[in-house]
Each structure stands twice: as structure tokens, then as C-alpha cells.
Amino acid sequence: MVFSSLIFLFVFFALNLAVYFTVPKRFRNQVLLVFSLVFYAWGGPKYLLLLVGETLISWWCGLFISRHEERSKKRLGIVIECVALLGLLAYFKYTRFFMGNIAAIFDAPELIPEIFLPIGISFYTFQLISYVCDVYWDKVQAQPTFWKLLLYSSLFYQCIAGPIVRYSTVADDIDHRKVTSLDVYAGMRRFCIGLAKKAVLANSCASVADTLLPMGTEGLFLQNTAGCWLGMLFFMLQIYLDFSAYSDMAIGMGRMVGFRFLENFNYPYQCTSIQDFWRRWHISLSSFFRDYVYIPLGGSRCSKLKYVRNMTVVWFLTGLWHGASWNYIFWGLFFLVFLLLEKFVIGGFIKKHRGVGHVYALIVVFFGWVLFKFENFTELGWVLSCMFGQAGTGLGGLEVQTLLLQNLFLLIFCIVACTEAGKKLHLRMGRMAQSSPSFLRVYGITEALTPVLCLLVSVVALAGASYNPFIYFQF
Amino acid sequence: MGPKRKVGDAALNMVSQIPLPPSAYSEEGQRGAAPAAEKPKQAPRKSFSRRQVAYLKKMHTAGTIAFGAVMALGCFAGLLLFAHPSVSALENRQLTEFPEFNVGAFLDGSYLEQVALWYSDTYPFRDALVGANLDLHRAFGISPETQLIGGNRQSDQLPDTGEGEPLETEAEPEGPKREPRDHDISEPEVRQRAANIENQISDGIYVNGNAAYTLYYFDKGATKAYAQVINDAAKMLEGKADVYSIVLPTNGGVMLDDSVLASLGVPNQDQAIDYFYSCMDDAIITVPTFDTLYAHRDEYLYFRTDFHWTQLAAYYVYESFCQQKGIEPAPYFQWKQLSFGPYRGEYDQLVSNSSQLLADEVRVRVPAGAKTVQYWDDDMTLGEPSKASVVEDLTNAPPNSNFYGCFIGGNRALTYIENPTVTDGSSCLVIKDSFGNPLVSTMVDSYQYIWCVDFRFTHQKMMDLVEEHNIQDVIFENVLMFAGTYDCSDLLASIVYPNGYSME
């Protein structure tokens, strides 16, 4: 089940809210847990065992670490946790990838087993690892109650598409969260905006991108230069709007019941360098790698060579986390190259010339998305050559022109939606409302109507369209 | 102090000390916001007064209540099982059916995914919501007068058949393997195949001025597969029934000039139909269609807002059929005439600026002989048939109804028409798509018994029908864009071959 579906909205979430706010406060965690398990089981009840099993291992490891003072025993706990969880992640997510590579080199094995990738495994595995690491580092206390840790790992708001919530963020909220009417409103508003962002903007961008760049079909190889550029531009918008919309919805739903999750995106396309981009994009993932891989490896307080090694490990893993395919690894390493370039060569220049830095960063990110989109290297190579007019399919055509004109306002709106303009407008309206009664009235009405209008337009888009891709299956 | 007061005070405190509106502040105040958004850098300039906060709180509460109301209404509407539609008139398709429970499918998640799909696909007021969504998408941009929708396909090179040249015999590269299917073809598969075929409509739509046109992309392998099924049908029916093939051009093929078609990279449909026919055995009686329609291209042969043809165009092809069969066509122009409209067909959903397309009028003539049809949507159990008119009088139907559905009850799995004014025992089986509906409505006075199956929805077997009803003529009718697909030949194969997929 995905958030952007009518059954989630009008059956699952509606019932969840109704039951949650009806039962006495002491049962609310249990209600959330039951709904979370049902939500996860929707994609295949048998994979629920994996989620529960991983949580059980992490719960035990957390308690084991907390109950022992000896460093060696604590280490044993964390080793068990990492071997078990990363082993399971490697089995489910990377076995086919590794075997495929071995088969390509050695012509064996002949048969590569089909292994289903349990949805959200990368997210909850990282969450649980972060929990045990934090217990190991005494950043949090081990959770003595298993079902409460299960609530943390399975919480349906973030279980399948992030953000990667740290246990420290919600540890207190699990037992002592408080909800004000303002929280309910702000959470509801955030959820509705996220839903509209996904159902209306991201899905529409996806439709245009996939029309122009139909992967896995001969149609891709018929596309012309303008079509490839436009298709990639829409994909660039889609991936941000889609991913940040899921984070908005997760943060919004959490806030409605008193959980305060970390922000996961901070207008990444406003970045002025690649380093800046990664401070703004999927913040929960980059901070995970920073805290649990980069810093333990030595971070930047070491020799140049070690720094490069640490960065290489982090960006190799970042790429690999996004999918079991070489293109994701190259995508990670592609960013590594530019991060090192910024660190050692052009960092000072782009800091002084922010405009140039912005354009440079957007170009790099754009080509990064080309790498990210195509797992098939024939397709990737072809699209890149087509973008530079080397594919022999021409520079433009009636179809591309038609699609551009038909989606021109959408394109402009989506570009604006990727910036802080909306937020700034909202703040400005708020300031104006403070000094003028008529503005206050307009502002108040806008505040009341925005969420419900977003919800209604999302329902129209969800009921009326069959195009609703879920792009996190490979994560 | 009661709890309500406390909340109010908290909210007041929160917003009255800062210059920002409460909701905006609360979002910025989310924990862990990135450094740039963590806190306002400047000191507050001004804050909301206590009265302003009270007003905003009221508006926030109103917003929350409105959200709750929409959620509650949406939930309630979804619970009204009787209000879940099974057919979308706007999209001209059967909607997803509620899946049958199966433990394996439940455990792997596919059952519940199917339930979610059913819920979404059949949500009450679907057609209204689809219409609203189309309006929303129309606001996404500007629609140029000339546009190409889809068009991301390549047409195979059309072989030069030449007059009377034998069918090419060179070895073909092996096409995609198709799963053999038997009589009990599963419903989801039939629906999927039918949906694939319907998708051909949007593979290439050219819009120019006030009309839209469907393009056709030639696929040599699929063409041969289609001809093969018809050839095999003729072999199986040898000595039992005559086999006719009617392959129809799309509106683009007839109405657009060759130069336009060439610039769009699509073939001349006259040659394409010739190639279809050239692949068929001599035992099959092929009905000329392209030249027949082209000779009348200044008449109202195709709709502007729909990819279908008019009954008038169908009549001209029926005349051509009669010529091949050696019978006199029915006096079409003496039949009673009706007119329905305004009609806006399927292009209305597919073309973003469909308002530039001039609304159509569905002009029909009502046959003098046969008046009623019986049909079955579920032709597996063949229960009590439903009834409709050969040409339904939709004069009083609301504007923009599906007026094209007036012919022989629409697209049905199995249809039967008996003409009481013909008593010679003549009979035919028409294996057709939706273009066949007006065609059959023009030919009802030429036969005493007509059986029709829509190849996308039927579970019938050709030989069973022929033997059971003593059928004399078997007529295969398909429009080019459907005929030239493997899905079409697959579905035809499931009707023609007793084992569902081959002569063996």
C-alpha cells in the first residue's frame, strides 16, 4: 500500500485516525503498532516476519550491549547486529546483483535465483542499525520493551519510504508525546501538501518523463535530442517532488499524533555546490552515512589519502544503497568525484561565485540523474549520446513540442515548487496579516482551505489517473 | 484551568512572541531542520496579537474539521459497495473486478494489491473524477492546434507486395514468445490483453484543427500472426463455412494526406491492408475497404472526437462486402434516420485541448427488418440474455452520452440477432471489435441469424458456434491498429483454435 492511493487515504488512514483519537491515550501506541503491522503486511504478510525478526535481533543486541560493561562484549553485540542485519539486507537486495556479476565473468552459475526484495528493507535495516549503534555509543538507552522497538521500526509513516528516523528522535515521543491542536493542524496541512505534491505534481512529471523516455522499449531509441533533455528535466523534478512528498506525508502524519521527525529535504535544487546539495538532499541518509560510516572511519581529520578512502567508501555505499545495479554505484562515485574536486580544487571559487556554483551544481545533479535513471548501460549510453545530438534521431519533433507546450505551466509550477518561494510567500502573507485585518481574514481563509483543497485535488488526481508509480522498490 | 485553556495559552505563547504565523513557525520549528531553516536569524519585528491568534486558531480548527469531514465522507463513499461502478462509460472499459481470495496470493501480497486496485479503479463517482482530472491536466499547459500524442513508435518497413505477388516466404526472426492459453483463459489476462489493444489508440494520435486522427504503425510479425490465425480458421472451416476478412483503415489512413503520414513516419494504410490480405490464403474472401472509404472521404466517415467510424462508413464497407458475397445490399438510405449529439468520443480524454475538437453528431439509420438483439456479458455461464435494440434510439439521452454505444447493444462478449423478415436460414458469425458494431447494424437485413463475438471479451470457440448454429459465413472484422498487434492475434487464436493457441 502506498500513501498516494485511495485505499490508504479513505480506508487505512481514515480508520487509523478515527481509532487513534478515539481510544484512551494509554492504548494509542498499541493502535499505531497494529496499524503499522497491517500496513507493512499489505505488501505480503510473509515479509512481516523479516521486519519482526530484524527488530527482535536489534532489541536483543541493544539489551545485550546495555547490560554489559566490557567493551569486548559490547562490540560482540554490535557485530551480531551488523552481521545479521547487513547479511539479510545483502541476501535480499544484493544476491542477484553479485551472482549476476559473477555469472558475467565466469559463466557460472547458470541459474540465478529469484529473490523478492521486501519493501522498505533498506530503510528499516538502517533505522535498527542506528538504534543499536546509538545504544553502543550510549547516545540512547536500550528499549526494554520489544513491541515499542517494533513500533519504532515498523511505524507506517516512515517504514517503506523514509525518512530514516533515528531512535533518539522518537524515543521520548514513544512514551511521552503530546499533541496540541496546532500539531494536528500543522501535521494535517503538511500531509495534504505532500499528498498533492505526489499525486498531482510528481505523478504528472513522471508521466511526461516516461512518455519521453520509455525505458525498456524500442521507443526510447526513437527519441530525439530535445525529447531526451526534456524527459530528463521532468525526471529530475519528479524524483525530488516524489521523494520529498513522501517525507512531507510521513512528517505530517507523525506530527498529527505527536511524533516530530527530522526534516529530510531542504530545497536541494537551490544548492550552490554538490556538498551543499548533499546537505539538503535525503538528509536522513547522508547523516546516517556521516555518523555511522564516515566519522567512525576517521572523517576528515586524517591524512588526505585516508580522507579520500573514507569518502570513497561512503559514496560507494551511498550508491549501492539506492539499488543493486552498477549505475547506482557509478552515481555515488560520480558525486564523489565532484565532492573531491570541490574539496581540493574549486571549493573556494564556487563559494565566492554562488551563482556559478548554483548552475554548476544543477548541471552535475542533472547528469547524476541520467546515471541514476538507467540501469541498462545500452540505454544510458544511447540517451547520453542523444542528448548531445549524436544519436541520429534529430534535434526535435512534433511529439516533444506538443508535450512541452501541454505541460508548460506544470513545468514552471514544479520548478517553483522546488524552491523556497512557496514558503516565503506563506511567511510574507503571515506578516501582512499581522498588520491588516483584511489580510488577516484572507490569510485565515487560506490557512483553513489550503489543506482541504490539496486533499480534494489529490483525490481527483488519484481516482482519475492510472499513473501512480512507486519509485522506492529498489531502495 | 481546564485543558482547553492550556492548549490555547500554549498556542498563544508560541505565536505571540514571534513575527511568523503559527503554522509557519511550527513547520520551521520541526526538529532537525537543516541549518538554513533551523531558526529565524532576525529578531522578531512584530507578533500576532491575542485576538489575531484566536482568529487563526479558529481557522486552523475549521481547516482540521474540513479535512476530517472530507476523510469521513471519502471513507463512507468507499463503503457503499453498490456505488462502485463496474464499467466506465467515459473510458469505455470494464473496471477491475474484486479479486477471488487465494491463500498464495494473500501471502505474497498480490491479493491485497488487487483489492487496492479494485478500490481505486471502482471508487464511486469515478467518471466524474476522471473528467475532473482531465480538466486539471488541461490546465497544465497550452495546446497547439497541431499536435502529436504518443508517436514514440517505429513502423516496420512495409514490404512491397505488388499485385498478385506471392506471400513472402523468407524466414522471420523469432518474435517474442507467447504463452499458450486454453479455453479457460483467465479473466485478468483477457482484460490485460484487451487493455493493451485499447492502448493502441493512444500510441499515435495526430491532432490538426478541429479533428484528431489515430495513426497506425506497421508490425510485420504481428501482421503475419494475424493472417496465420485467419488462414487456419479457413482451413478448419473448409466445407463448413465461408471465411471473410475485413481489415479496416483508421481515420488517419483515410483522412490524412500521404505527405502528412510520411512526415509522421507512418505507412500508407492502403498498402498495409493490401499486405494483410496478401498474407491470407485464397480461400479467404477479402473485402476491399480502403479504396471504398477513400472514394467517400469528403463524407462524414469518421468522428472528429473519436477514433471510431460512422454508420455511413460502415455501410460503404457493407456494400463492398455484399459485392464480394454476391448479394444485394439492404436499402440503407431508405431506412429511418436518427441523429444524436453532441457527441464527444474517446479523443476527449486523450487530447489535452479537446475543446478545439469540434463535437460530433452520431447519425444513424434504423434497419427495417431486425430490431432487437440479445446479448451476454458473461458468456461462460450463458444465463438469461439481456436485450437491446439493433440501433438504440438515444434521442433523449443527455448530451455527450456514449452515443456510439447505440449499435447492437455495444461491446458484448456474445450477441445474437434474429431477423424475422428473412426466412432463408442464412447465418453468419462476426468476430469483431468495436468497429464491427455499426457494421453489423447495417448487415442485419442480409441474414436471418447473426451471432457476434467481441474478440476482446468472449470465451466462445469459433468451431462450437459454427457447428451448433449451422453458421454459413464467418466474418473477421478488425481495424488495422488492433489487427496489427500480437495481442489481437493471441485473442483471436483463443477463439479460433480448440486448444486455444495452435492447429495441433
TrEMBL record, chain A:
UniProt main location, coarse: membrane
Gene Ontology cellular component annotations, sorted alphabetically: plasma membrane
Organism listed in the record: Parvibacter caecicola
Keywords: Acyltransferase, Cell membrane, Membrane, Transferase, Transmembrane, Transmembrane helix
Record family assignment: Belongs to the membrane-bound acyltransferase family.
GO MF term list: acyltransferase activity
Its membrane topology: Multi-pass membrane protein
GO biological process per UniProt: alginic acid biosynthetic process
Record Pfam families: MBOAT
Transmembrane segments: 47-66, 78-95, 115-137, 149-168, 220-241, 307-324, 330-350, 357-374, 403-421, 442-467
Superkingdom field: Bacteria
Location of this chain's protein in the cell: Cell membrane
Protein name: Alginate O-acetyltransferase complex protein AlgI
PANTHER family: ACYLTRANSFERASE, TEICHOIC ACID D-ALANYLTRANSFERASE
From TrEMBL, chain B:
Annotated InterPro entries: DHHW (IPR025945)
Coiled coil: none
Keywords (A to Z) from UniProt: Membrane, Transmembrane, Transmembrane helix
Composition bias, Basic and acidic residues: 174-189
Amino acid composition bias (Acidic residues), ranges on this chain: 162-173
Pfam families, A to Z: DHHW
Transmembrane segments: 59-83
Region (Disordered): 21-46, 147-189
Origin superkingdom: Bacteria
Name the record gives this protein: AlgX/AlgJ SGNH hydrolase-like domain-containing protein
Organism for this UniProt entry: Parvibacter caecicola
